[in-house]
Amino acid sequence: MPGNLRKGRSLTKFIDSIVITENGKNIDLVSLKKRAPKQAALMSILMKNHILDSYVLNNIFPEWKKYSKRPIEKNWIKIEQIIESFTDTQKLDKSTKGPKLNSEQKKAILDVKKSHTFNTFLLDGVTGSGKTEVYLSLISDVIERGQDALILVPEIGLINQINRRIEARLGIKPSQYHSGLTENERFITWKKIQESKTRVILGTRSAILAPFKNLGLIVVDEEHDISYKQQEGFRYSARDLAVMRAKNFNIPVILGSATPSLESFNQHVNNKYKYLALKKRAGNAKLPSMHLIDLNNGHSEDGLSKLLIKSINEHIENDGQILVFINRRGFAPTLICKSCNFITECSRCDSRMTLYLSKKLLLCHHCGYKKKYIKSCIKCDSEMIALGQGSQRIEDSLKKHFPNEQILRIDSDSTRQKNSLNEALKKAKTGKAKILVGTQMLSKGHHFSSLSLVVVVNADQGLFSNDFRGSERLAQNIIQVAGRAGREKKKGQVIIQTEYPDHPFWPLLFQGGYKEIVEMTLMDRKNANWPPYSFIVLIRAQSHRKKYTWSFLEEAKKILVSQKPDFSILGPVSAPMEKKASHYRGQLLLQSEGRKSLNQSLKVLIDEIERKKLVRRVKWSIDVDPIELF
Ligand code: ADP
Ligand code: ZN
Ligand code: ZN
C-alpha cells in the first residue's frame, strides 16, 4: 500500500489551476507577440485550453510562472485553487498506426484474443522480435472491450520507453505505479485503480498488488528478470502473483521474454503454459553475430584487448554506436599490495572493498562502509595496485583510446539523482554519446536505434558462479545485452572477452543459443533435483553473535524434524558471505517434491519458533522459491 494510505491521510490536495478570463480571450495576440513573445506563447496555450492544472502547464511551458505576472495584473488570466481531481483518464489527441504485423505476431495476438478466460501465455520472442507490438495490439483490444490492462516491467528505467509507445499508439496516458513517483502520485494511482478510473496501468513489481477491479489482461515483460522478486521484507514474486491474479480474474496473462526463466519454460513443457514464439527480428533487422576474444592473447591491463579497440574503431567509422557492458561499478574491485599480497577488505563484511579512484575512496558495496584510499600497504608500505576492472576504469581506458568521442557511463553511481537516469537514457538514445559504458542497468529492454556493437568486457565471473542458477543467468545476461545491437538498419555485432575460451558454455551458447542452454540446464536440474523439479525454501538468520544465528537455525531444524517431514533439510550452514554489515549469517535449505507438506511444516515452524526467546536475538526470514541462495 502507498504510505499515505497506510497512514490514513486524505487524498484531497489543492492545486493551482490557470484560467483564462474573458478579457484574456480577446487580446490581440499578434501585437503581443511582437512586444512580449513569451507572454504571447503563454496566452496562446491558454486560448486553446481555457483551463490548465499547473502541473500540466509545467510540462507544456516550464517557464510559465515567470511570464504570468503581467497577464495576471492585466486580468487576462487568473489562478484558482481547486481540489485535485483524479478522475480523468487522460485521453490524448491522437493515436498512430503501428507497423504491419508479421505472421508470427498475428498468430500470437489471435491465440491470446481467442482466450477469454484464464490462460498463461509464454511469449518467447528473440530480442527485437516485436513483442511490444503484440502487447500493444492486445491492450488496445482489451480497452475497446471496456476493461483495464496492466503492464509490468522489471525496472523503472524501462517505464518511459514503453509509456511513450503506449501513448503514441493507443492515445492513452497510462497510470504509472512505481517507486519513482512521489507518495502522493502513488496514492492517486492506487485510488484511481480502486475506483476503476484507469485504463492502462504501467508499473514495476509492486503494481501487481494494487486493488484492481476490472482487469482484462496482464502483461509481464522480461518475465525472467530477477527484479520481479522482492528479496526483503515481504518476499514475493510479482510474476507468480501475476499468474495468480489472472487466474482469480479469469483473464489471460502474458509472460514475455527473449530468455524465459527455466520455471516458465518448464511450465510450457508440462503443457501448463501456452507457448507463443517470435523467432525472427521484426522488420528487416537481423540478429547480431557473436565473437569471442581470448584475453590470454595480448591481454591488456586496462581491460580492453587490442582486437577490441580495433573493432570499436571500425564501428565508430561506420557511424555505429557502441555499448560496453561491465558487470561491476567503481574503478576496480580489488586493491592489492604488490609485494605482500595484502588485500583491502571491509572490516564489517567478508568482502573486498571497491576502489573509487577519482574520489580517493574505498567503498564496500555490501554495507556501504567507506575508507580513505591510501597508496601504500598498511602491512609493508609497498605500493598497492588496483586489480580488475569496474565501470569507471573502463570509462577511463576508453577515454584514453578514444579522446574525440563522447563517452557516457550509466550505472547506479552515475544515476543517483532523481531523473538523472532518464536524462542519461535520453542522451544515449539520440546516439550523440558514441560509446556507452554500462552495468546491468543498460543491458535490458532498451532500444538504441544506431547501436551496432555490444562488448561484454569480462564474462568470466558468471562462468564459475556457485549458484545453481549461474549458467542460466549468464546466458540471459549475454543474450539480453547482445539484443541491444542491430535493432534497426545497422547489422549488429557482439564481442565477448574471456580468459576461458575453451569453456563448454561457449559452444553451447553460440551454436545452440538460449534454447540449448535451457535444455542442458533443465537436464542438470532434473538430475540434481533442483527447481523446477523440486521446490526449495531458504530459512535465513543473522545476528551480531555467531552463536545466536546457529542456535536459531538448530532450533528451527529441530521443530521441522519433529514433524517427520517428507522433505529434506540441509544445514545449518554459513551463508556464502558469512559476515555482512557485522552480522553473522547462516541458512537452512529445505528441498521438497511438493508444496503441501512444506507449507504445513512452515506454518508450524513459524508458530513455534515465535514463542522462543531466541528469536529476539536474530533477524530471520523464510524465503519460498528463493532466486538467490545467499
Ligand atoms: P521487442 O519488444 O521484442 O524487443 P519491439 O516490439 O520493441 O520488440 O520491436 C522492435 C522494433 O521493431 C521496434 O522499433 C518496432 O517498432 C519494430 N517492429 C515491431 N514489429 C514490427 C513489424 N511487424 N514490422 C516492422 N517493424 C516492427
Ligand atoms: Zn604489503
Ligand atoms: Zn562491508
Main attributes of the structure:
Rossmann fold; 6-stranded parallel beta sheet; binds zinc ion; 630 residues; globular; binds adenosine-5'-diphosphate; 7-stranded parallel beta sheet; alpha/beta; 25 strands
Annotation field: number of helices: 21
CATH architecture of the largest domain: 3-Layer(aba) Sandwich
Shape: globular
CATH homology superfamily of the largest domain? P-loop containing nucleotide triphosphate hydrolases
Q: Percent of residues in helical segments?
A: 25-40%
Chemical compounds bound to the protein: adenosine-5'-diphosphate, zinc ion
Tally of domains: 4
Radius of gyration: 28 Å
CATH class of the largest domain: Alpha Beta
User: What order do the strands of the largest sheet run in, or round the barrel if closed?
Assistant: 6-7-5-8-9-4-10
What is the arithmetic mean of pLDDT? Answer: 91
**Topology, number of strands:** 25
Tell me what the structure shows:
The chain is an alpha/beta fold. The chain is 35% helix and 22% strand. The chain folds into four domains: 14-83, no CATH class; 103-278, Rossmann fold (3-Layer(aba) Sandwich), CATH 3.40.50; 289-332 and 388-524, P-loop containing nucleotide triphosphate hydrolases (Rossmann fold, 3-Layer(aba) Sandwich), CATH 3.40.50.300; 535-624, Alpha-Beta Plaits, CATH 3.30.70. It contains 21 helices and 25 strands. The strands form six sheets. A seven-stranded parallel β-sheet has the order 6-7-5-8-9-4-10, sandwiched between helices. It has a six-stranded parallel β-sheet with strand order 11-21-20-12-19-18, sandwiched between helices. Helix 3 (29-35) runs antiparallel to helix 4 (37-49). It is globular and about 80 Å long. The model has no long low-confidence stretch (mean pLDDT 91). Adenosine-5'-diphosphate binds next to helix 8.
